[in-house]
Amino acid sequence: MKPSTNRMLNRIKSIYMFINNHGTVTTQELVEEFGITPRTIQRDLNVLAHNDLVKSPSRGKWTTTQKKVKMTS
């Protein structure tokens, strides 16, 4: 796997874990926490949403779904 792909997957995993630990978070909170652009955060959230791992109950807010996830290192 390319290093850039590995970094992206690690970032997406970290974003998922952050949302899971904090309940509902805003896109802006994620931008501030991870120090990346709103566009990058949105792309990562789209990946998570496409895989039914997060949902947006209202515009700009995110929470995890009930889908079971097996976390690996």
Automatic annotation (TrEMBL):
It comes from the Bacteria. Pfam families: HTH_DeoR. Residues 8-63 form the HTH deoR-type domain. Keywords: Transcription, Transcription regulation. SMART domains: HTH_DEOR. InterPro entries: DeoR_HTH (IPR001034), WH-like_DNA-bd_sf (IPR036388), WH_DNA-bd_sf (IPR036390). This is DeoR family transcriptional regulator. It comes from Cytobacillus spartinae.
